[in-house]
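Please check this.
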Amino acid sequence: MPAHRKYSEELVERAVRAVADRQCQTPGRRGIIREVGESMGIHPEVLRHWVKKTEAQTDLQDPLLPSEANRLHQLEQENADLRRTNEILETIVTLFAAVLKPTVSSKAGTRGKF
């Protein structure tokens, strides 16, 4: 019987997160757990157990499906991009308004000519 290895909680979290990230990037792709496990030196069945355990805990806390979570992430990124764009546009409008705003002295000079 092989010896049991004790893995740090940090390694467990990183491995499970790596599997979740890959599954979001390529949903439905098989062999992700094996690939991540091999790259991190973790037996695939041990990693599979960690992933299932984490998914069970997450299902109780977060009822989103992976596709919904992925879509939510995309929408949050798009929202952040749009906010940055609006900030840039507001800055540009403010700058142009200051440049194009007629000065008080030029208005006073034109009134007397008419």
